[in-house]
């Protein structure tokens, strides 16, 4: 009998071990995205907008590191659509990356496509958004990757986690706004409000009922997952009378530091810990965001606000409590932005190392900035001095092809679609941040920078003063990169590299090229495919501030791009 009990006990233990092992194994998660029109009202304006599943913002995707995601997108609307999973590395799965005419043709009306990818070696806060025209104004949502089961955060476990996604609201259709700007060559109309989780808040007309409220308990730690999904604006963020601890940026753990205020460019995410006060403070607190502005153009000079409320209020009616407001930096406070950026450092621990490329194969220098294009004959344009607004990298303003670049490359039919000769330096040197040249015209082309597999790259991106210096948040698809240095004025290739941080630089997927300055990044081209790189200010992308990298296959089977899926959309 004793032997039977011992055997039974061992069977139970083995079964429990197998079950726990299985629960730690990655799973496949299925999501359905229905692209559909939905009437939404904000600021007393109702408009029909493109949404996912009728929701604004769209649904939250949650997965664990190692999970496979199968997201079926069906287009019930009249606009072509594609979805980008912003910050996901897409190792060998470039067909699922999403930028229209780069890795896929868009999904047409009545068609569907399954985005199929595995989350490898990543955990943290990312987001998804439409990647065609200006549809990401309404088509976006959080993408939250939890650590593997039983793997803790490298900081105290929070009591609760709350995503807060920043957006922009337009009273008119953003597609009509960019269509008009494209036609006239002028600057597009700006948004009418900023939003937290789709809500503009009490500082806007007719919006007190549309206010994001964060209800908290005293003496608890909350993890706020902050995402800037705004179309065209970098945003300062602060909560009155509360200090925030930054613990992650772009889904990379950082050395924790405290701050009252953050800056997030479009495309960037930041996780912060909010430690609530030990007992009810007898007050409510505004959380606010407003733009950081460096350019010359018009902008939405307004402020979104939400309310931090403590539960179990000593007063039955919360509205009678005093309301504290945060103090945000001035609109053009570049010195704050610089100080904040310099505080971000990778954790660089044994568990989460910073594998900065030390030996560089390819040194590249890209100018990024605005410019102009000549107006068509017998037409009046509304850009500078009667020209059209344009933007470029190394003076090449990217021309979007009418077929997908990745398919053209994979099928060996790239002739007439793109040139593999993107310039590795500007063709003409000038004083980039000084007096601009008289000729501000850009060249146009569909050019790719070709990299052999496993090339280690150092790229310096230099802002220019053509049409005025401006901060440009550059986003690289398919990779994270290390931000090894940044500064103001013209980059000095002799002296500036002496100050590079090659030990614990921040690793991210989107970085602001400083206004009137430069930033140096390093990355390893270990992901075969065609990868878009562009300014995440949508207006600049529309004007051509974008390019693409072609990373060739490696020699080994696991270094090659996988074949395209059978349901890949056709152009």
Automatic annotation (TrEMBL):
Q: Name one GO molecular function term.
A: copper ion binding
**Which compartments does it reside in?**
Secreted, Extracellular space, Apoplast
Q: Name one Pfam family in it.
A: Cu-oxidase_2
- Residue span(s) of domain Plastocyanin-like: 35-148, 161-312, 428-553
Q: Per the annotation, how and in what number is the cofactor bound?
A: Binds 4 Cu cations per monomer.
Record flagged with keyword Glycoprotein = yes
* Keyword presence, Chloroplast: no
Query: Which Gene3D superfamilies does this one have?
Result: Cupredoxins - blue copper proteins
- The residues the entry assigns to the signal sequence are 1-26
Where mainly found?
secreted
This protein's source sits in the domain of life called Eukaryota
Which cellular component, as a GO term, is one annotated location? Answer: apoplast
Q: Which UniProt keywords apply?
A: Apoplast, Copper, Glycoprotein, Lignin degradation, Metal-binding, Oxidoreductase, Repeat, Secreted, Signal
CDD domains, per database record: CuRO_1_LCC_plant, CuRO_2_LCC_plant, CuRO_3_LCC_plant
Which protein family is named in the record?
Answer: Belongs to the multicopper oxidase family.
Report what the protein is called: Laccase
């Amino acid at each position: 009998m004793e032997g039977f009990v011992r055997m039974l006990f061992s069977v139970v233990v083995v079964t429990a071990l197998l079950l726990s092992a299985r629960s730690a194994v990655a799973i496949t998660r299925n999501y359905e995205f229905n692209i559909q029109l939905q009437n939404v009202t904000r600021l007393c304006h109702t408009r029909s907008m493109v949404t996912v599943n009728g929701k604004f913002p769209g649904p939250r995707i949650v997965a664990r590191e190692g999970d496979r995601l199968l997201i079926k997108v069906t287009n019930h609307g009249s606009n072509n659509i594609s979805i980008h999973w912003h910050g996901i590395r897409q190792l060998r799965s470039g067909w699922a990356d999403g930028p229209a005419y780069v890795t896929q043709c868009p999904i047409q009306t009545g068609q569907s496509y399954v985005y199929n990818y595995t989350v490898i070696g990543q955990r943290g806060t990312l987001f998804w958004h439409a990647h065609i025209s200006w549809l990401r104004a309404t088509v976006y949502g959080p993408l939250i990757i939890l650590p593997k089961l039983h793997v803790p955060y490298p900081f105290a476990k929070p009591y609760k986690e709350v995503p807060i996604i920043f957006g922009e609201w337009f009273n008119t259709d953003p597609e009509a706004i960019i269509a008009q700007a494209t036609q006239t060559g002028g600057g597009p109309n700006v948004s009418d409000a900023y939003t937290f989780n789709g809500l503009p808040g009490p500082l806007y007309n007719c919006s007190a009922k549309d206010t994001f409220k964060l209800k908290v308990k005293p003496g608890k730690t909350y993890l706020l997952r902050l995402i800037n999904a705004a179309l065209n604006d970098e945003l300062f963020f602060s909560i009155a009378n509360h200090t925030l601890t930054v613990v992650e940026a772009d889904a990379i753990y950082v050395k924790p530091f405290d701050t009252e205020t953050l800056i997030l460019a479009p495309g960037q995410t930041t996780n912060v810990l909010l430690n609530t006060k030990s007992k009810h403070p007898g007050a409510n607190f505004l959380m606010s965001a407003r733009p950081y502005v460096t350019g010359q153009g018009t902008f939405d000079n307004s402020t979104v606000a939400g309310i931090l409320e403590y539960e179990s209020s000593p007063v039955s009616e919360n509205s009678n409590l005093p309301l504290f407001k945060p103090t945000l930096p001035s609109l053009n406070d570049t010195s704050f932005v610089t100080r904040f950026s310099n505080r971000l450092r990778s954790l660089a621990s044994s568990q989460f190392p910073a594998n900065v490329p030390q030996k560089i194969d390819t040194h590249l220098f890209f100018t990024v900035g605005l410019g102009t294009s000549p107006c068509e004959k017998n037409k009046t344009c509304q850009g500078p001095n009667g020209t059209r607004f344009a933007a470029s990298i190394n003076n090449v303003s990217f021309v979007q092809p009418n077929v997908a670049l990745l398919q053209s490359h994979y099928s060996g039919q790239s002739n007439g679609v793109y040139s593999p000769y993107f310039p590795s330096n500007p063709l003409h040197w000038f004083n980039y941040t000084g007096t601009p040249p008289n000729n501000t015209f850009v060249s146009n082309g569909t050019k790719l920078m070709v990299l052999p597999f496993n090339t280690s790259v150092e790229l310096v991106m230099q802002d220019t003063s053509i049409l005025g210096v401006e901060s440009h948040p550059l986003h690289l698809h398919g990779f994270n990169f290390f931000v090894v240095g940044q500064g103001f004025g013209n980059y000095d290739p002799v002296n500036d590299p002496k100050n590079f941080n090659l030990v614990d630089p921040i690793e991210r997927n989107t970085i602001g090229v400083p206004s009137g300055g430069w930033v140096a990044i390093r990355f390893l081209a270990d992901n075969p495919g065609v990868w878009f790189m562009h300014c995440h200010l949508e207006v600049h992308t529309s004007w051509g501030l974008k390019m693409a990298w072609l990373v060739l296959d490696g020699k080994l089977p696991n270094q090659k791009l996988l074949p395209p899926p059978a349901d890949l959309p056709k152009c």
